[in-house]
């Protein structure tokens, strides 16, 4: 019987010792997490720069921060679209996006050429060409291509629709 009591005492000691070991592991892990959190906080506060972080695009490429731009409003245009019956009109107001005011001054002398290129292209469109976001995107890209051909060596960065009305 004494042998059984000694065995039970050893098992109880192992359980009690195991409980202390678990407490030490939990306390150690908590301390480690606390030290990591303090280290990360110190790193961000002490080593971060005042510059904004780089922007990452959808394709994973790092992009520069957006630079200020200038917008130039073109005169409103109303053209009749190419249709087989009832006359359909397109009224459009467009703004050009350029990098600075100097570029606007370089573009202004070409304004008659720009308007002519737009009028010729828009008159050949059908109402079906302007349906949906894909149609408007194609229109925007084509107008941008035509304007950059008209104002070369100056450059327009974007064509923005302020108003589009098909009637």
TrEMBL record:
GO terms for biological process: bacterial-type flagellum-dependent swarming motility; chemotaxis. Pfam families: FliL (PF03748). It comes from the Bacteria. It is found in: Cell inner membrane; Cell membrane. InterPro entries: FliL (IPR005503). It is a single-pass membrane protein. The chain crosses the membrane at residues 24-46. Controls the rotational direction of flagella during chemotaxis. This is Flagellar protein FliL.
């Amino acid at each position: 019987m004494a042998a059984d009591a000694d065995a039970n005492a050893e098992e109880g000691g192992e359980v009690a010792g195991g409980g202390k070991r678990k407490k030490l592991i939990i306390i150690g892990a908590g301390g480690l997490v606390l030290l990591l959190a303090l280290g990360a906080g110190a790193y961000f506060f002490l080593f971060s720069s005042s510059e904004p972080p780089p922007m990452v695009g959808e394709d994973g490429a790092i992009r520069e921060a957006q630079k200020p731009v200038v917008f130039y409003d073109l005169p409103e245009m109303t053209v009749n679209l190419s249709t087989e019956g009832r006359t359909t009109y397109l009224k459009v107001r467009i703004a050009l996006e350029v990098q600075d005011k100097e570029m606007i001054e370089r573009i202004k002398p070409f304004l008659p050429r720009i308007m002519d290129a737009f009028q010729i292209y828009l008159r050949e469109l059908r109402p079906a060409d302007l349906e949906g976001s894909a149609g408007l995107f194609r229109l925007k890209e084509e107008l941008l291509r035509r304007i950059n051909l008209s104002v070369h060596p100056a450059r327009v960065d974007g064509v923005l629709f302020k108003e589009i009305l098909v009637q």
